[in-house]
Amino acid sequence: MSSFMKSESGKRLTALMTQDYTxxxxxxxxxxxxxxxxxxxxxxxFAGFDNLVAAVPESHAAMCAGRGKGAVLASRAxxxxxxxxxxxxxxxxxGTVAGGGADSPTFGLPRxxxxxxxxxxxxxxxxxxxxxxxxxxVPHFVLDVPFCYGPQREEDTDYIRTQLLDLIAxxxxxxxxxxDMDRVAEATFHTAEAARHWKRFLKNAEARPSGITxxxxxxxxxxxxxxxxxxxxxxxxxxxxxxxxQAVAAGDVPVKNEKYRLLWDNIAPWHQLRKMRERLAGLGxxxxxxPYTSCIGSLEGSFAAWDFSSETDPLRAxxxxxxxxxxxxxxxxxxxxxxxxxxxxAIDGAVFASNRSCKVFSLMQMDQMREIAQTCGIxxxxxxxxxxxxxxxxxxxAFVRIEALLEQIDAQRAA
Length: 415
Ligand code: SF4
Prior knowledge:
By secondary structure, the protein is α/β, with parallel strands linked by helices. 51% of the residues lie in helices and 10% in strands. The protein has helices at 8-29, 57-66, 70-79, 88-98, 123-136, 154-175, 181-202, 214-220, 222-226, 231-249, 273-282, 291-294, 314-320, 331-344, 359-362, 365-376, 395-414, and strands spanning 33-37, 52-55, 114-118, 140-143, 260-265, 285-289, 349-354, 380-384.
Protein backbone atom coordinates (compact mmCIF):
# COMPACT_ATOMS: atom_id res chain seq x y z
CA MET A 1 0.00 0.00 0.00
CA SER A 2 1.52 3.30 -1.06
CA SER A 3 1.91 6.08 1.49
CA PHE A 4 -0.27 8.98 0.42
CA MET A 5 1.83 11.69 2.07
CA LYS A 6 4.95 10.50 0.21
CA SER A 7 3.26 10.87 -3.18
CA GLU A 8 3.93 13.96 -5.28
CA SER A 9 0.56 15.43 -4.36
CA GLY A 10 1.19 14.64 -0.68
CA LYS A 11 4.52 16.45 -0.73
CA ARG A 12 3.03 19.40 -2.64
CA LEU A 13 0.19 19.61 -0.10
CA THR A 14 2.65 19.81 2.79
CA ALA A 15 4.61 22.57 1.02
CA LEU A 16 1.41 24.47 0.18
CA MET A 17 0.03 24.37 3.71
CA THR A 18 3.39 25.24 5.29
CA GLN A 19 3.78 28.22 2.97
CA ASP A 20 0.21 29.34 3.66
CA TYR A 21 0.62 29.37 7.44
CA THR A 22 4.01 31.08 7.11
CA UNK A 23 2.49 33.79 4.89
CA UNK A 24 -0.40 34.21 7.31
CA UNK A 25 1.91 34.94 10.22
CA UNK A 26 4.29 37.07 8.14
CA UNK A 27 1.55 39.26 6.66
CA UNK A 28 -0.20 39.62 10.01
CA UNK A 29 3.08 40.70 11.62
CA UNK A 30 3.51 43.25 8.81
CA UNK A 31 0.18 44.86 9.68
CA UNK A 32 -2.47 43.10 7.57
CA UNK A 33 -6.02 42.98 8.91
CA UNK A 34 -6.60 39.48 10.31
CA UNK A 35 -10.03 37.86 10.04
CA UNK A 36 -10.86 34.55 11.68
CA UNK A 37 -13.54 32.70 9.77
CA UNK A 38 -15.64 29.57 10.03
CA UNK A 39 -14.86 27.07 7.25
CA UNK A 40 -17.93 27.75 5.12
CA UNK A 41 -17.66 31.55 5.19
CA UNK A 42 -16.99 32.61 1.57
CA UNK A 43 -13.37 33.66 1.80
CA UNK A 44 -13.47 34.66 -1.89
CA UNK A 45 -14.67 38.07 -0.62
CA PHE A 46 -11.27 38.72 0.96
CA ALA A 47 -9.58 38.62 -2.45
CA GLY A 48 -11.13 42.06 -2.99
CA PHE A 49 -8.77 43.54 -0.37
CA ASP A 50 -5.01 44.10 -0.59
CA ASN A 51 -4.04 43.99 3.03
CA LEU A 52 -6.22 41.37 4.63
CA VAL A 53 -5.55 37.76 5.65
CA ALA A 54 -7.97 35.08 6.82
CA ALA A 55 -7.34 32.26 9.29
CA VAL A 56 -9.61 29.26 9.89
CA PRO A 57 -9.67 28.00 13.50
CA GLU A 58 -11.53 24.76 12.60
CA SER A 59 -8.90 23.86 10.03
CA HIS A 60 -6.11 24.69 12.45
CA ALA A 61 -7.80 22.50 15.10
CA ALA A 62 -8.04 19.60 12.62
CA MET A 63 -4.34 19.98 11.86
CA CYS A 64 -3.49 19.94 15.57
CA ALA A 65 -5.57 16.78 16.00
CA GLY A 66 -3.86 15.17 13.00
CA ARG A 67 -0.46 15.89 14.56
CA GLY A 68 -1.49 14.31 17.87
CA LYS A 69 -1.91 17.60 19.73
CA GLY A 70 -5.71 17.55 20.06
CA ALA A 71 -5.91 16.20 23.61
CA VAL A 72 -3.26 18.47 25.12
CA LEU A 73 -4.81 21.60 23.59
CA ALA A 74 -8.39 20.61 24.38
CA SER A 75 -7.49 19.86 27.98
CA ARG A 76 -6.12 23.40 28.32
CA ALA A 77 -9.65 24.69 27.57
CA UNK A 78 -11.10 22.16 30.01
CA UNK A 79 -8.71 23.44 32.69
CA UNK A 80 -10.18 26.90 32.04
CA UNK A 81 -13.66 25.53 32.76
CA UNK A 82 -14.99 24.46 29.33
CA UNK A 83 -16.85 21.16 29.39
CA UNK A 84 -15.40 18.10 27.68
CA UNK A 85 -18.83 17.71 26.06
CA UNK A 86 -18.23 20.75 23.87
CA UNK A 87 -16.96 20.36 20.31
CA UNK A 88 -13.30 19.34 20.30
CA UNK A 89 -12.49 21.93 17.58
CA UNK A 90 -13.74 24.65 19.93
CA UNK A 91 -11.79 23.24 22.87
CA UNK A 92 -8.61 22.91 20.82
CA UNK A 93 -8.94 26.47 19.56
CA UNK A 94 -9.76 27.98 22.96
CA GLY A 95 -6.89 25.94 24.44
CA THR A 96 -4.53 27.19 21.71
CA VAL A 97 -5.37 30.80 22.51
CA ALA A 98 -5.10 30.16 26.26
CA GLY A 99 -1.60 28.70 25.77
CA GLY A 100 -0.43 31.49 23.46
CA GLY A 101 0.08 29.04 20.56
CA ALA A 102 2.15 26.53 22.57
CA ASP A 103 1.87 22.92 21.24
CA SER A 104 0.33 24.08 17.97
CA PRO A 105 2.30 23.00 14.86
CA THR A 106 1.75 26.52 13.48
CA PHE A 107 2.29 28.40 16.76
CA GLY A 108 -1.43 29.14 16.77
CA LEU A 109 -3.06 31.81 14.62
CA PRO A 110 -2.27 35.52 14.54
CA ARG A 111 -4.56 37.59 16.76
CA UNK A 112 -7.74 38.58 14.89
CA UNK A 113 -9.23 42.03 14.26
CA UNK A 114 -12.58 40.54 13.21
CA UNK A 115 -14.37 37.22 13.74
CA UNK A 116 -16.79 35.91 11.11
CA UNK A 117 -18.87 32.87 12.01
CA UNK A 118 -21.98 31.45 10.41
CA UNK A 119 -25.08 29.52 11.34
CA UNK A 120 -24.74 26.88 8.64
CA UNK A 121 -22.38 24.80 10.75
CA UNK A 122 -23.92 24.82 14.19
CA UNK A 123 -25.07 27.10 17.00
CA UNK A 124 -22.04 26.10 19.05
CA UNK A 125 -19.70 27.70 16.54
CA UNK A 126 -21.24 31.15 16.97
CA UNK A 127 -20.99 30.78 20.77
CA UNK A 128 -17.36 29.63 20.46
CA UNK A 129 -16.43 32.66 18.35
CA UNK A 130 -18.31 34.78 20.87
CA UNK A 131 -15.93 33.54 23.57
CA UNK A 132 -13.13 35.16 21.56
CA UNK A 133 -15.22 38.29 21.02
CA UNK A 134 -15.47 38.68 24.77
CA UNK A 135 -11.94 37.62 25.69
CA UNK A 136 -10.14 39.51 22.93
CA UNK A 137 -12.56 42.40 22.63
CA VAL A 138 -12.90 42.15 18.84
CA PRO A 139 -16.09 42.44 16.74
CA HIS A 140 -17.96 39.32 15.65
CA PHE A 141 -19.96 39.19 12.41
CA VAL A 142 -22.47 36.31 12.21
CA LEU A 143 -23.57 35.20 8.76
CA ASP A 144 -27.07 33.78 9.08
CA VAL A 145 -27.80 30.92 6.65
CA PRO A 146 -31.32 29.47 6.80
CA PHE A 147 -31.51 25.69 7.28
CA CYS A 148 -33.13 24.00 4.28
CA TYR A 149 -35.44 21.05 3.68
CA GLY A 150 -35.45 21.46 -0.10
CA PRO A 151 -33.48 23.47 -2.65
CA GLN A 152 -32.31 26.79 -1.20
CA ARG A 153 -35.14 29.30 -1.73
CA GLU A 154 -34.62 32.41 -3.90
CA GLU A 155 -35.40 34.67 -0.96
CA ASP A 156 -32.79 32.86 1.13
CA THR A 157 -30.16 33.34 -1.59
CA ASP A 158 -31.02 37.05 -1.61
CA TYR A 159 -30.97 37.20 2.19
CA ILE A 160 -27.47 35.64 2.31
CA ARG A 161 -26.26 37.86 -0.54
CA THR A 162 -27.39 40.97 1.36
CA GLN A 163 -25.35 39.82 4.35
CA LEU A 164 -22.30 39.33 2.12
CA LEU A 165 -22.68 42.98 1.09
CA ASP A 166 -22.87 43.90 4.80
CA LEU A 167 -19.70 41.92 5.44
CA ILE A 168 -17.93 43.71 2.57
CA ALA A 169 -19.03 47.08 3.98
CA UNK A 170 -17.73 46.05 7.42
CA UNK A 171 -14.37 45.07 5.93
CA UNK A 172 -14.15 48.30 3.92
CA UNK A 173 -14.70 50.29 7.07
CA UNK A 174 -12.11 48.29 9.04
CA UNK A 175 -9.40 48.28 6.37
CA UNK A 176 -10.03 51.67 4.77
CA UNK A 177 -9.89 49.89 1.39
CA UNK A 178 -12.53 49.70 -1.32
CA UNK A 179 -13.39 46.09 -2.17
CA ASP A 180 -12.39 45.22 -5.74
CA MET A 181 -15.37 43.24 -7.01
CA ASP A 182 -13.54 42.12 -10.15
CA ARG A 183 -11.07 40.33 -7.93
CA VAL A 184 -13.94 38.72 -5.98
CA ALA A 185 -15.34 37.47 -9.30
CA GLU A 186 -11.91 36.12 -10.25
CA ALA A 187 -11.60 34.38 -6.87
CA THR A 188 -15.03 32.79 -7.34
CA PHE A 189 -13.86 31.49 -10.72
CA HIS A 190 -10.75 29.96 -9.08
CA THR A 191 -12.96 28.27 -6.48
CA ALA A 192 -15.18 26.88 -9.24
CA GLU A 193 -12.07 25.52 -10.99
CA ALA A 194 -10.78 24.01 -7.74
CA ALA A 195 -14.16 22.36 -7.14
CA ARG A 196 -14.23 20.99 -10.69
CA HIS A 197 -10.82 19.33 -10.30
CA TRP A 198 -11.75 18.12 -6.80
CA LYS A 199 -14.72 16.27 -8.29
CA ARG A 200 -12.40 14.78 -10.91
CA PHE A 201 -10.10 13.58 -8.11
CA LEU A 202 -13.00 12.01 -6.18
CA LYS A 203 -14.26 10.27 -9.31
CA ASN A 204 -11.26 7.95 -9.03
CA ALA A 205 -13.24 6.18 -6.29
CA GLU A 206 -15.41 4.71 -9.09
CA ALA A 207 -12.50 2.52 -10.21
CA ARG A 208 -12.44 -1.09 -8.97
CA PRO A 209 -10.31 -1.30 -6.89
CA SER A 210 -10.80 2.32 -5.96
CA GLY A 211 -8.08 4.78 -6.96
CA ILE A 212 -8.37 6.60 -3.63
CA THR A 213 -9.27 6.08 -0.02
CA UNK A 214 -11.41 8.53 1.91
CA UNK A 215 -8.34 9.18 4.03
CA UNK A 216 -6.59 10.64 0.97
CA UNK A 217 -9.52 12.96 0.37
CA UNK A 218 -9.74 13.97 4.07
CA UNK A 219 -6.10 15.05 3.97
CA UNK A 220 -6.26 16.67 0.57
CA UNK A 221 -9.37 18.74 1.33
CA UNK A 222 -7.40 20.86 3.85
CA UNK A 223 -6.46 23.68 1.46
CA UNK A 224 -10.06 23.98 0.27
CA UNK A 225 -10.87 25.23 3.76
CA UNK A 226 -8.04 27.75 3.97
CA UNK A 227 -7.18 28.76 0.40
CA UNK A 228 -10.49 29.07 -1.43
CA UNK A 229 -10.51 31.66 -4.20
CA UNK A 230 -6.80 31.28 -4.94
CA UNK A 231 -5.26 30.02 -8.19
CA UNK A 232 -2.71 27.86 -6.28
CA UNK A 233 -5.58 25.79 -4.91
CA UNK A 234 -7.12 25.15 -8.34
CA UNK A 235 -3.68 24.23 -9.67
CA UNK A 236 -2.99 21.84 -6.78
CA UNK A 237 -6.31 20.06 -7.30
CA UNK A 238 -5.70 19.92 -11.07
CA UNK A 239 -2.37 18.16 -10.51
CA UNK A 240 -3.88 15.96 -7.80
CA UNK A 241 -6.64 14.78 -10.15
CA UNK A 242 -4.18 14.26 -13.03
CA UNK A 243 -1.71 12.30 -10.90
CA UNK A 244 -4.45 10.14 -9.39
CA UNK A 245 -5.94 9.35 -12.81
CA GLN A 246 -2.48 8.37 -14.08
CA ALA A 247 -1.87 6.18 -11.02
CA VAL A 248 -5.18 4.38 -11.54
CA ALA A 249 -4.40 3.83 -15.22
CA ALA A 250 -1.06 2.31 -14.17
CA GLY A 251 -2.77 0.02 -11.63
CA ASP A 252 -1.24 1.88 -8.68
CA VAL A 253 -4.17 1.87 -6.25
CA PRO A 254 -4.15 2.19 -2.45
CA VAL A 255 -5.90 -1.09 -1.52
CA LYS A 256 -5.09 -3.69 -4.16
CA ASN A 257 -6.93 -6.52 -2.41
CA GLU A 258 -10.12 -4.44 -2.08
CA LYS A 259 -12.94 -6.79 -1.07
CA TYR A 260 -15.20 -4.29 0.67
CA ARG A 261 -16.05 -0.79 -0.54
CA LEU A 262 -17.29 1.30 2.37
CA LEU A 263 -18.76 4.76 2.92
CA TRP A 264 -17.88 6.97 5.91
CA ASP A 265 -20.46 9.35 7.37
CA ASN A 266 -19.26 12.27 9.50
CA ILE A 267 -16.15 14.41 9.91
CA ALA A 268 -12.75 12.78 9.47
CA PRO A 269 -11.25 11.04 12.53
CA TRP A 270 -8.17 13.27 12.22
CA HIS A 271 -6.15 11.46 14.88
CA GLN A 272 -6.66 8.04 13.25
CA LEU A 273 -6.22 8.60 9.52
CA ARG A 274 -3.12 6.51 8.89
CA LYS A 275 -3.87 3.86 11.49
CA MET A 276 -7.45 3.32 10.39
CA ARG A 277 -6.55 3.31 6.70
CA GLU A 278 -3.89 0.64 7.26
CA ARG A 279 -5.92 -1.55 9.57
CA LEU A 280 -8.87 -1.48 7.19
CA ALA A 281 -6.62 -2.30 4.24
CA GLY A 282 -5.36 -5.31 6.19
CA LEU A 283 -8.96 -6.55 6.22
CA GLY A 284 -9.35 -5.95 2.48
CA UNK A 285 -11.62 -2.98 3.21
CA UNK A 286 -11.41 0.47 1.73
CA UNK A 287 -13.51 3.43 2.77
CA UNK A 288 -13.76 5.08 -0.62
CA UNK A 289 -15.92 8.15 0.05
CA UNK A 290 -17.67 10.38 2.57
CA PRO A 291 -20.34 13.07 2.30
CA TYR A 292 -17.90 15.31 4.20
CA THR A 293 -15.56 15.47 1.19
CA SER A 294 -18.11 14.83 -1.56
CA CYS A 295 -20.20 17.88 -0.67
CA ILE A 296 -17.47 20.25 -1.88
CA GLY A 297 -18.60 21.85 -5.14
CA SER A 298 -22.20 20.63 -4.85
CA LEU A 299 -25.55 21.97 -3.71
CA GLU A 300 -27.77 20.62 -0.94
CA GLY A 301 -29.28 17.19 -1.64
CA SER A 302 -26.74 16.02 -4.21
CA PHE A 303 -23.03 15.42 -4.64
CA ALA A 304 -23.08 16.18 -8.34
CA ALA A 305 -20.89 19.07 -9.49
CA TRP A 306 -22.70 22.40 -9.43
CA ASP A 307 -22.15 24.59 -12.47
CA PHE A 308 -20.90 27.86 -10.94
CA SER A 309 -21.24 29.59 -14.30
CA SER A 310 -25.03 29.17 -14.08
CA GLU A 311 -24.91 32.14 -11.67
CA THR A 312 -23.28 35.20 -13.23
CA ASP A 313 -23.30 37.39 -10.10
CA PRO A 314 -20.40 36.11 -7.95
CA LEU A 315 -22.09 37.14 -4.70
CA ARG A 316 -25.20 35.17 -5.64
CA ALA A 317 -23.01 32.19 -6.55
CA UNK A 318 -21.29 32.37 -3.15
CA UNK A 319 -24.67 32.70 -1.43
CA UNK A 320 -26.11 29.79 -3.42
CA UNK A 321 -23.50 27.29 -2.18
CA UNK A 322 -23.96 28.12 1.50
CA UNK A 323 -26.15 25.08 2.25
CA UNK A 324 -23.87 22.50 0.67
CA UNK A 325 -22.01 21.30 3.77
CA UNK A 326 -24.28 18.43 5.03
CA UNK A 327 -25.15 20.06 8.38
CA UNK A 328 -27.50 22.84 7.14
CA UNK A 329 -29.97 20.49 5.43
CA UNK A 330 -32.75 18.15 6.48
CA UNK A 331 -32.68 14.37 6.66
CA UNK A 332 -34.31 13.71 3.29
CA UNK A 333 -31.78 15.90 1.46
CA UNK A 334 -28.90 14.22 3.28
CA UNK A 335 -30.24 10.74 2.49
CA UNK A 336 -30.93 11.64 -1.13
CA UNK A 337 -27.32 12.77 -1.64
CA UNK A 338 -25.94 9.74 0.19
CA UNK A 339 -28.08 7.29 -1.79
CA UNK A 340 -26.68 8.72 -5.03
CA UNK A 341 -23.13 8.28 -3.77
CA UNK A 342 -23.77 4.68 -2.65
CA UNK A 343 -25.13 3.78 -6.08
CA UNK A 344 -22.46 5.63 -8.09
CA UNK A 345 -19.62 4.04 -6.17
CA ALA A 346 -21.11 0.56 -5.71
CA ILE A 347 -20.75 0.81 -1.93
CA ASP A 348 -21.03 -2.48 0.01
CA GLY A 349 -21.57 -1.05 3.50
CA ALA A 350 -21.70 2.23 5.41
CA VAL A 351 -19.92 3.26 8.60
CA PHE A 352 -21.83 5.93 10.53
CA ALA A 353 -19.25 7.54 12.79
CA SER A 354 -21.23 8.99 15.65
CA ASN A 355 -19.30 11.98 16.93
CA ARG A 356 -20.15 13.35 20.35
CA SER A 357 -18.42 16.62 19.54
CA CYS A 358 -20.48 17.36 16.47
CA LYS A 359 -24.06 16.97 17.56
CA VAL A 360 -25.42 18.67 14.46
CA PHE A 361 -23.78 16.09 12.18
CA SER A 362 -24.52 13.11 14.42
CA LEU A 363 -28.05 13.62 15.68
CA MET A 364 -29.78 12.46 12.50
CA GLN A 365 -27.49 9.51 11.90
CA MET A 366 -29.63 6.84 13.55
CA ASP A 367 -32.61 7.73 11.35
CA GLN A 368 -30.44 8.10 8.29
CA MET A 369 -28.79 4.73 8.95
CA ARG A 370 -32.20 3.03 8.98
CA GLU A 371 -33.27 4.84 5.83
CA ILE A 372 -30.09 3.95 3.95
CA ALA A 373 -30.27 0.30 5.02
CA GLN A 374 -33.83 0.17 3.66
CA THR A 375 -33.46 2.14 0.45
CA CYS A 376 -30.01 0.90 -0.58
CA GLY A 377 -30.20 -2.58 0.96
CA ILE A 378 -26.65 -2.45 2.29
CA UNK A 379 -25.43 -3.32 5.80
CA UNK A 380 -24.60 -0.36 8.04
CA UNK A 381 -22.89 0.09 11.37
CA UNK A 382 -22.47 2.88 13.91
CA UNK A 383 -19.17 3.47 15.69
CA UNK A 384 -18.24 6.09 18.25
CA UNK A 385 -15.36 8.38 17.31
CA UNK A 386 -14.68 12.02 18.10
CA UNK A 387 -13.13 13.84 15.15
CA UNK A 388 -10.36 15.61 17.07
CA UNK A 389 -10.23 14.26 20.62
CA UNK A 390 -8.65 10.82 20.67
CA UNK A 391 -9.54 10.40 24.34
CA UNK A 392 -13.08 9.78 23.07
CA UNK A 393 -12.24 6.85 20.82
CA UNK A 394 -11.67 3.18 21.50
CA UNK A 395 -10.03 1.49 18.52
CA UNK A 396 -10.86 -2.08 19.51
CA UNK A 397 -14.51 -1.29 20.15
CA ALA A 398 -14.76 0.45 16.78
CA PHE A 399 -13.07 -2.40 14.91
CA VAL A 400 -15.21 -5.08 16.52
CA ARG A 401 -18.17 -3.32 14.94
CA ILE A 402 -16.48 -2.70 11.61
CA GLU A 403 -15.49 -6.37 11.38
CA ALA A 404 -19.10 -7.31 12.13
CA LEU A 405 -20.13 -5.07 9.22
CA LEU A 406 -17.72 -6.91 6.91
CA GLU A 407 -19.17 -10.23 8.06
CA GLN A 408 -22.66 -8.97 7.25
CA ILE A 409 -21.49 -8.02 3.77
CA ASP A 410 -20.05 -11.52 3.33
CA ALA A 411 -23.30 -13.05 4.57
CA GLN A 412 -25.32 -10.92 2.16
CA ARG A 413 -23.11 -11.96 -0.75
CA ALA A 414 -23.38 -15.63 0.18
CA ALA A 415 -27.19 -15.51 0.46
S1 SF4 B 1 -19.95 21.02 16.48
FE1 SF4 B 1 -19.57 20.25 14.40
S2 SF4 B 1 -20.27 21.87 13.01
FE2 SF4 B 1 -20.04 22.76 15.07
S3 SF4 B 1 -17.97 23.61 15.08
FE3 SF4 B 1 -17.85 21.56 15.94
S4 SF4 B 1 -17.35 20.24 14.20
FE4 SF4 B 1 -18.08 22.19 13.37
